[in-house]
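re: ur question from yesterday

yeah so i grabbed the chain u mentioned. its 370 aa long if i counted rite. heres the sequnce exactly as i have it in my notes:
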Amino acid sequence: MTVARAMGPALLSVAVASATAAPLDALLGAWPERAGPSSAAAAAQLEAGLSFVNRHIDFSDPEDDPELAARAARGDYRAAHLSGGWAPAPGWWLAGTLAQRELDDGVDRYRYLGWQLAAQWRWHEPPAGSRLPAMALRLGAWGHRAGETATTTPVRVPGAVLDTVTIRDPADRTLQLDAIASWTLRPGLELGVLASVGDTRLSYGGLTATTRRNGCSYDLLFTGNDIFGTLAEPCNAPGGVIEQFFDSSGSYGVDVPAEIAWRGRFVQWGVNLRGETGAWTWAAGFLWHRIRRDGVDDVVAERGRSAYTHNRQLVLDAGWRFQPGWALFLRADLGERLFFNELPVTYNSSTAGRFGSRLSLLTAGLRAQF
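ran it thru and got these structure tokens back, copy pasting raw so excuse formatting
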């Protein structure tokens, strides 16, 4: 009903490559304390970076009118992140990230704060010269939130058009467990594989909107599926003016909480190579991700639209150590689906169709080891 089209843009936002699960999951290894296969272990690390798209993002939907589709096809994305890691004991690695994300869908602009915390334990360390892998377990939590997101694009629903929609405190939260194995193929070259399971939940604090009925403007307040409307300004209409009314989104076949505050469970696997030659390090990783969302994807399918449930990503990373402990890096993230497993809060029954677009991100920044 109302929330669908509106929430899409309202929930889209910037995702720093290292701030969430997707991009760096493809590069996970059992020795996170090393900058490269030949590098010594560090007691701590810091990374700061800026992310941007190397071309416009297409946020358009097949149901958009031509004018809106043209504007939505020229979306933009920017992000900044600061991440760090610390080895409190041999075999242990604690990591955290903060990120500011900004997304422009061609009509409105949205900002989110991203966060991540993780603890990794290397439970098997192979002896030197062994062909056995180092093996680790990693438990992490990550998510995004905003104080408010608002869209000024009219939203068509059965029996009405919402002129504006505002969502208060939209957020997502994910718990994730990774199993990681890394092999030293030869000096300066490392192979890694990973498998993960996770649980994602979306939430929001409130939903309001504006609309017109019989030529009069109304403010709408949603409580679950209940809608309370009040006259926004004095109005003269033939046959009299209704100052207040109650309605239910359920009568239109829409379950607001289930469609925008869903829960999902995912599995993923990945493989990567890491290399080091002199002052240069490089890494290449592939990640396959599949999610099952409760409720919302069934609704999408019932309405005859595509519910995207899997994503493939390729991540390439290069670093140049310009002095001991300090390096510049450039990372490319190529995704089959638009912000698919990076920014769950942007996915709902209305925005599902927008995730068919591909994503290409670049991140540049500075790394330090201590």
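noticed a couple things. DSSP finds five helices and 19 strands in the chain. also The helical segments are 3-11, 22-25, 66-72, 256-260, 296-302.
anyway ttyl
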